[in-house]
Design brief:
By secondary structure, the protein is of the alpha/beta class. Helix content is 23%, strand content 27%. The chain is built from eight helices and 14 strands.
Amino acid sequence: MCDGAFWQIAHRKLHNLLEIILTGTGTSQGVPVIGCDCEVCTSMDERDKRLRTAALICYGDRRIAIDCGPDFRQQMLRTGTKNLDAILLTHEHNDHIIGMDDVRPFNFQNWTDMPVYCTPRVQQSLRQRFSYVFASENRYPGAPMVQLHSISKDSPFEVAGMKVQPVEVMHGKMPVLGFRIHDFAYLTDVRSIAPAELEKLDGIRFLVLSALHRKEHHSHLNLDQALELAAQLGPEQAFLTHISHRMGRHEDVQRELPENVILGYDGLRISCDV
């Protein structure tokens, strides 16, 4: 094979590689928790230091963020993200949207609106909390430029050349969207999921799934429940996220998990061919 043909194939393989970076794997308080001196919050293991839960999808030169919480700026700096094609929002809780103001550097770099994909309910919350962003008159100069796109559990959509299948899960009584891209699925803030939505996850190879801690919780899966759901879905690998300091130290918890389940940590990268 000539050198030119080799590099064409190598480039094509790289371009067809979907990489997911877990930019945050903690709960709404993050880990360590302010004022807490438990063994997790005082751990020197970097895997026990967790920003608020979020992820970055990388495909070729395209970048899509899942959620935009209070650590969004730090997460973009950590990953060296210079261009962002879009943001997908799972739901409107503060730890998933309150970093929206920090899309401004992306606006200023390209002078384009940031596409944000979310349900109409989440859009309403964004308009309330970031009224200065959506003001029709006397708009503040330098405010973030955001273009909202409505999505629902019933309709796949395309963003930055990738087909995205929304998957509805229940966060207690609140509907929340997860997302499937190719053979990868990202589900956070899960307490239950309807059979029709489970069908959308048939054949997934890689799963990111929230697991709060070990005790029963009204709006989150605990560790045992998350492991049960992961076993039901049967991915090659599952990665747990949205982890509380009450779960235990990373190195201790990981020893308890099945071979194909990894306790997620900030900066973890998942790669799969598409």
